[in-house]
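Forwarding these from the shared drive since the link keeps breaking.
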Amino acid sequence: MQSSRFPLNLLSSFLFSAVAIAFLPMACPVLAAPQAAFMPTSLPVMPLPAHSVAGEGHFVIDSGLQMVFNGYTEPRLERARQRFFATLKRQTGILPSPPLPGSPQFVITTREASKPIQQVGEDESYHLEITPRKVSLDAPTPLGVLRGLQTFLQLVQTTPVGFAVAAVTIDDKPRFPWRGLMIDSGRHFMPPEIIRQNLDAMEAVKLNVLHWHVSEDQGFRIESKVFPRLQEMGSDGLFYTQEQVRSIIEYARDRGIRVYPEFEMPSHANSFYIGYPELADGPGPYHLKRKFGEKWGRPRKASEDSSMDPTKESTYAFLDRFIGEMSTLFPDTYWHIGGDAEDAITEWATNAGIQKYVHEHNIKDNAALQAYFTGRLQKMLAKRHKIAIGWDEVLQPDTPKDIVIQTWRGLDSLALSARSGHRGILSWGYYLDLNEPASRHYTVDPLDKAAAELTPEQQASILGGETAMWTEYVSPESVVGRIWPRAATVAERLWSTRETKDVDSMYIRLDVLSKFLAYSGLPYQATREQMYQRMVGAADVSPLKVLAETVEPPKGFPREGDREYTVYTALNHLSDVIPSEADAAREFRRLAVRIAAGDATPAEIQLARRDLVLWRDNDAVLQPLLAQSAVTLELAPVSRNLSQVATLGLSALDALEKRKPLGASAREKDLALLKTLSPPIAELTNMILPGVETLVTAAR
């Protein structure tokens, strides 16, 4: 999320409602209460709690703050306390000192232990009561404590009297038990420190499942001691050792997060075949795929597009041993078998040996063959007390009911899985790699549309959802900035009440959260600054950042643009660096709508004018810098277009302010020019253009 310039009226009212009491005189350590408490319409946190009631006064944070545990305790809680104070130190700069008599107390009461291996549906509720003298956090299990600590940290505010938290009572629990993030380490390998950074952010917004996609056509990413050629020949040397996997799983458990793997099969499994070609349905030889979408528009080659052979008993013998090894590495109850089999079904149809098997065994069709393959995997997992998950292609009439269906194809597919007696997880609408706006993810609910027509029992089978980051077009350098803070919109959708739908509030709180995530240990904002600076060398980076805040990268998949993407493509262009959503352009568009409707305040009109002048004049400063770098040469027409669009916007704004409408021919000419300036250049779309078009249309 970029540093947004939210409208003064929205931002000021929001922050006033959250911290109004902080501006009163202080009688340390208690902040004097007003005559009547101001109830915030929306706490500055994500996700919003299920229920909150404002109190009177503030709890002031000083160096003497101490935390004590009552009831059940365990080492995980002590480590949570240490993380809490480390984050608080980064937030406030306050160094803890030995507690003094009468110091403010933070008292945590936990009733009982959580499960040794975290389970779906465990109690994550908590009760948080903040008064001027004391903080009480009560939870049935350590999971609730972890969630409540993050809420408190997000409530810390800067006030004229110091750092403080407004008095409030919160009763909170999640709406869905499954709230996940899928990270693809198969296409681009994501080092352990990147996985840990994402786990830190997941804890901050109460996500509780890491779906770890660890095998793809581009690489097999987990060390196998039973089948060592998997990583030796199928990873380019980029894989996680088993010790690293155990460390990450323990790191996640400390944060109340389950971790389960996805080993993709029967399609997207080329990395299996490099070392073990007997698994495949083709003759080989096999190689790791380098180009993303490399078979689109080209004749099929068996050496590129083979899938696992479901007709050989040797395939199942291999997978049984493989699952046996990996199931001991991943203790979670769930295991993702992939099942994205659109390639496999096509390939099996052209394989004479497989078709002979289908005929001899009275298998209805290739979809039924996939169900047979899935059923065999399910039995291997069940004997190890694991539950299989598959993408919604695995849903066939004969698919075992124990298999959980993860849908990427829409709410109709999710509802179908529930009607068919399967539990379901929604990922459609939550794909972060598509670079859709945060509002898009925020407005997708697992129980909307077709799912709303299900019976209560069927709705209960929908466990929740997962936001997803596929990594064709991101690197370890850029991936965290593409996931966060937008993933928090899905976290709120899955945690908060169904009635929590205010998009304006969401964007304001998302901007606040983006700053909090830096205190939680995520360096993505600093990394993006470094990537900007790298593009211009030692020059002043400010003009490049002005351009960057007005453009967005390509949306959808596959990426339609000027470059060919392989695993080796340098992801160092502006389209790789910028956030998925241009916040400044989105805010300008909101202002333009208000101005066109005659509803804007003078301050809002002046803000729009200031932005347009900045964007118009930036080209003259930026152009000399662009010629100095091969990476920035492609931005010269992007910068010129921005200046032209802003000039048209200023002309329209002048006409509206002076009440001197543009003539019909002039207006049509300007609109036609805007249309010619709208196509993406250098894989960048000018996002101030819709707002300017609104102003030009209104200036009539």
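-- next protein --
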Amino acid sequence: MAGRRPRLPVMLLLILALVNMRVAMASGHALLIGISEYSAQSQSSTLPGVPKDLANARRMAHAMGIEDANIVQVRDQDATRARIVSELGALRSKVSAGDRVMIFFSGHGTRYDANNRCVEGLQTYSPGAFTENDILTEEDLAKYTYPISERADKLITMIDACFSGGVLAGKTRSLSGALGLRAKFTTRGGQACDRAVNDRRTRSFAPAMTRLGADNENFVQIAAANYNEVSWDTPEFGGLATHSLSQCLLGEAKDLNQSGAISLDEIRQCAQAKIDETMKPYERFGQLRSTLQVRGSRNLIVVPAAPTPTAVTSAEPTKDQSALAAPPIAYTDSQKPAGTHTPTDESKLQNVQGNSEGSSVPVGGAVASTSSDQSPPSTPMAPALASVATLEDILAQRDPRLKLRVEAPEQLKIGRDLFDIKVTSSKAGYLYVVLLGSDNRSFYLLFPNKLDQDNRIVANSTVRLPRPGWSIKAGGPEGVNRILLVVAPSPRDPKVFVSSEADPGGPFAYSVADLSSRQRLIDFFVGRGAKNSDRRMGAELIQIKEVQ
């Protein structure tokens, strides 16, 4: 009929809807800034490795799930202070709740005298001689990125530049050029800061971010060097820090605590080892290694690893472990048995990947973290501690702006007491409860479960678990139950947690706590289980003892 708009085919409408959904669900943005060629008037040396840094930064952004459509790159003469500030403002307007944001800078660092102290910052591009007005100070960086961190789930900044003018002697600088190494800083000449060691108080924007109100768990700063060191540029690899970080982030880092995921601090340890090895031949010329710095959320899982098949073997119980604990069992109120539960065949799954060392492992102890001054563990972590590390790694991904209040008993008597937990969330979402039992051999998704699928929680309301219709009784052995409670604005995909080979049995999704299951549990909360949805989550990890 004349005048009527033609109708689109149903298939085309469906395609358009999927495209729009894909755009709406994009969950990451990146701003990449690199300055290799400074103007002749600025009297700043060329950094030939910066183009390689930008390529590596883009690869890292891709690994974080950030698509090219959401990556903005500003390079060389375009990277003026005004342009960078403008792009930071534009980035803020694009970021939505739950997004992860990466900001990367590779170029010269510099410093100047101000109020009897040295102020360090990033040297942006200037067509003429650069002045203090062309420096993006660390206070500036904090001021312009803080509004982004307010919206984003996590803000990650990576700065491959140094702020150590005057640290190297003239002879050392000339040797740097001869050997292909170049320090990434520019001096301004005639200033006390050119002859001074860096001021600890101004080396990092992390304190400035904290003063502005940012939570340490919501942002990360990765710096190429410590407060009194330089970072190095090479024509072959680019910045040593960026090159090493990209190799480790893209697959070479090791899961040192065997939690099932690789944390940012584990990536740092891998990259630091690479930098140390690379710089060994140059030590006799006075060029020393730089020390990577990670501030803020050091245990952030940047790239969730997909689960890989692992060989699982059974471990024979020791003499004092002759009776295995049964998995938790839920009953409707009308089905509660009068007697105690006898383990069925499904409970024998708990013997898989058991701890053959038994009593030598401090099951209730905290997992030790490796600081920058310590060597990584030389032997694999015992399965019990590795399973605890899995829960702690998930906890470290929480957004502190999503607050949970949890009320639970400190202990339960085996065979007598019932679990009773109250959860209140500051935000509406979906509640998940994961149990690592007192035997430390299995993970259970206690809620939602086959008897109770509705896991929605209303903001500022209290959910009491178990709810009417089912209950859980303490079944032993003596020890500590660790219970992870998570509230996420978007639901997680339950299929990601359950192994295709395992029959969970009973009302709870069940997974033996081997390495593959540790990977799967992390993947459930921060990887594929949260794909294309809001990745934020509030979380608490509590302990309940089981006693005779």
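The chain has a mean pLDDT of 76. The chain has two domains: 26-296, 319-357+376-547.

- D.
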